[in-house]
Input
Amino acid sequence: MIRLFINGLAASAGGGLTYLRNVIPHLARRGDAEATVLLNPAIRREFGELPNISFVEISESSGAFRRFVREQTTLPKLIRRSGAQFLISAGNFALWNSPVPQILLSRNSLYTSCDFGGHFGQRLAGTAIHKLRRHYRRPECGVCPGT
Output
């Protein structure tokens, strides 16, 4: 049996929310997986009660920076308490010191694209939020800053 922790707190529109709406019911039907899902209360109400799924609700903090800080400090405790083996984050923010291996779902290529980093990134290279989000670099591409 695999145990997952899905951080859907930052998923409020677009790809992250679509992912949650499709994956959570699928996981509920599986007999070989259990998931703990972190959501804000408004989105949590969409799912009702599902087998193999437990929900944790946290009201969303105002602003990306506050949510980021809250996730970095609160999530490790919740993950350990859930007994999860893997973390899936559906909202563009990875957990820096994750107690388990994690998968970050991000449909915004500006955080990982070598082309963006080398060509367009100069416009945003100095912004703090860009630096926080773009902590992943692919050294094999030769275009990413720092390679």
